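Researcher: Last one for today. Full complex below.
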Amino acid sequence: MKKRLRIIALVLVVAAVALWAATGANRGWTKTSVPVKTVDEVTGIEGITYRTQFVPGLDFLSLALLGAVVLTGVSFLFHTKSNSPNNQTKP
Amino acid sequence: MKIQLTTILATVVLAGAAVAAPQTFDFKDPKGVNNVVFKTDAVLESINGSANGISGTVTFDPENPAATKGKIVATTASLTVPNPMMNGHLHSDKWLDAAKFPEITFDAKELKNVKTDGNVTAADAVGTFTLKGVSKEFTVPVKLTYLKDKLGARMMGKMQGDLLVLRANLTIKRSDFNINPKAPDDHVSDEIDLTLSIAGASPK
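Model: Here's the assembly. Have a good evening.
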C-alpha cells in the first residue's frame, strides 16, 4: 500500500506537469475559456469571443503537487512488511 | 417656369439639409463585434477581460464633428474573464455588483480639440463615466471614423447606411469607484485600462 500510494503521487505530478506543458504552460490562473479574436473587415474592429477550453494554470499545478504531498504523507502511515528473522514464523 | 425653378431650389435646399443633418448611430451591434477590453497590470498578476454587451447612440454630423454627443452603455454582466472563479468574483457585490449596478455608461457632452483629416476625427470627449453607481467627469481621447455607405458591406446588403467607428482609451482607478478597495494592489492594480472599439450604424 505504501509503495502504491507513492506511485500514484508520482503519476499525479507527472501527469499534471505534462498536461500543463502540453496546453501551453500557462503561468496564470486556470482558464475554462480562451478568447478568440476576429477582425471585422469593414470596420477593422477586433472582436472577441470566448471558446470553451480547459487551460490549466499554476493553481492546477499547485493542487496536483499538494495532492501528491498528501498521498506521500499518508503513505508513511503504512508500515512496510519486514522480512527480518524475528517476524518470520517458526516451524 | 417659375414653379419649376422653385421646385428645383426647394429640392436642392432639402437635399443639402439632408446631407448636413446630424445622423444618429446605434451602437447595438448585431454582429456582436463591439467590445471593451479591460486590463489590470499588477506586480504579481495581470488580468485581462472584455465586455461585449454594448449599446447606446451617438449623434454625429460629418460636416460638424465637433457637435458629436452620445451615450455608450456596457452591461456589467457581459464583462468576462477566462477564469470561472474570477468571473464570479468580478460580478459579485464586492467587485462590480452586477445585480445592483447592471450598466456601465459614458455620457459624452462635448468634443474638444477636434481635428478632422478626411473621414477620421480625433478629439477629446468630455463626459461622465458611471460605474457601480459612482459618476466622475472624464476627458477621453477618442477617434471617430465615418464610413459612408459601408453598412451594406457589413450587413451583406441586408441594410444600407453609414457606419461610425469609435475608438477610445481610458484609465480609471478602482478605488474611485468603490471596486473592492481593500483588494491588495500587488494582485489587482488600482489602475484599470479600458479600450473601447465599437461601430455604430445609421441605416437609411
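Chain A has one domain: 2-79. Chain A touches chain B at residues 28-35, 38, 40, 42-50, 55, 57 (CB under 8 Å).
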